[in-house]
Design goal:
- This protein has 15 helices and 31 strands.
- The chain has 556 residues and is α+β, with helices and mostly antiparallel strands.
- The chain has 4 domains: 123 residues, Adenine-n6-DNA-methyltransferase TaqI, Chain A, domain 2, CATH 3.90.220.20; 95 residues, Helix Hairpins, CATH 1.10.287; 146 residues, 5'-nuclease (Rossmann fold), CATH 3.40.50.1010; 138 residues, DNA methylase specificity domains (Adenine-n6-DNA-methyltransferase TaqI, Chain A, domain 2, Alpha-Beta Complex).
- The radius of gyration is 33 Å and the shape is elongated.
- The two termini are 32 Å apart.
Amino acid sequence: MKEENISKEEYRETELGFLPESWKIVKLGDVAKIDWGNTSLTKAYYKPYGYPAFSATGQDGFLDFYEHEGEAIIVSAIGAHCGKCFFASGKWVAIKNTIIVKTQIINIRFLYYLLNDETKWPRSGSGQPFIGIGKARELLISFPPLSEQKKIAYVLSTIQNAKEKTEQVIQATKELKKSLMKKLFTEGVIIGFMFDTNIFNDILDQKIPIESLPGNFSYFVTHIQRDEIKNTSDPKRKQQLMKVFEDIKQNKIPTSSAVWDVSRWGESKWSDGKLYEKILNDLNEIKKKDNNIQDVLIGETAIKNGLILVTNDKALAEAVKKNSGEAITLNDFLKGEYQKLKETEIGMIPEWWKVKEIKNIVIETEQKDMRKENIEFKYIDVSSVDRNNLRIANCRLYKGKKSPSRARKVVHTGDVIIATVRPTLKRIAIINNEYDNQICSTAFCVLRAQREKMHPQYLFYSIQRDEFIDKLRFIQRGASYPAITDKDVKNQKIPLPPLPIQKEIASILSAVDEKIQAEESKKKALEELFKSMLDNLITAKIRVNNLEVENDKTRE
């Protein structure tokens, strides 16, 4: 239908709809040279040469034998990708079953955008569709004045360039995530350090300059260290120790437990006391001292916050390590030996991490036969998971007897699901609030973390690592329908750092995923904008003939 803002004086009705008086309708063959791509070559002749290659399958690679040069439009002429277009420039190769369009009469970028719509091309064939070159030459296209062609091409190219830059950011961020995952699961992450009270004494006695301490880490302290320094009997030494204490930029955190007559109100937390009592008993067995309670409060706080304790007290260091913490000497700290690695059955990991089978850190999940339940639910099947972004992209609603027979596994927020059918395709996702108490297919293994041992997002990232998927590749069974069982997944081992480290790793990787998702949304918006602008510009619903284009490099 003709738009209200289009006056009859400026527009006329044509075979392609209402168009401006200044626009012509021409046949593609009248404004462009159209030839077949080379149809005589077979793959045996293709040799690596470094030129982009275009084929009817829609795939490009680096093949060569039949060489072209210059700007052209390559059109896939047969099969499922029939009508798909590529823009070629420089040196390139056209594989068989493609149409080559060259022109110097019409702006080639404008023509590329005009033709890059598979529905425009006349197709033949009842089975496999193809584009006949004769019909291609007869294809009617709109032909604005050359200056307007350039401006249309400029606007669309600007959007296309923005989309391509966004795609580059997405790819770079995905590469960053890949390298980060390898580093984080091998070398770990350091949240920060906690200095035992004796370390301030050693810094003072050894005359270690405060500025020589690494500045790229965070340091934490409780009121216990400050109180112990204030209890120093020698006034002069107490003053010197307080200066060392205050000169080190530290974050003050409360102790993870509270002890009567030792802890301070507002600077300590109440706890169930289990870890505190365990460390205290261990420390007393190693070496009973008057200040063991203070040492335990420092050690427990370091463990529960995922901090590396720097101490020269061998007994305290031993007790901390015995309770899944990490402690190093001041000498090792100054040498940069912050976190030693160890070789395990799953590769190198930090020395204080553990290796656990998944079955020991997850809990059992429930199942329901939804064909017997008269409730509507969202059904997550294997196709619902976007394996490029590892999240649930879509699902269908079902109710009662019409429900799929595989709709049985109940999922809740924080559950991690991994497809056991073709597991190497990485159909992995973590359940968010939108799918809480919904149903997934029995083709998934559902992993529900024991929250006191495992952070759900850490589990999610652990099982998407290439190293984990490679293990599944090795044990999958079936040539045409490779699959594994839930038991196979739960028998796999993963690195298990302390819970605060798990949360830090998950936080780092989640931030990267959020960046990728934001860029994906931007890309989608640009694609929709491009599609809308393309339709409006080539049908003249939006005019750019009065647009002033600076530094226009679009070739005439």
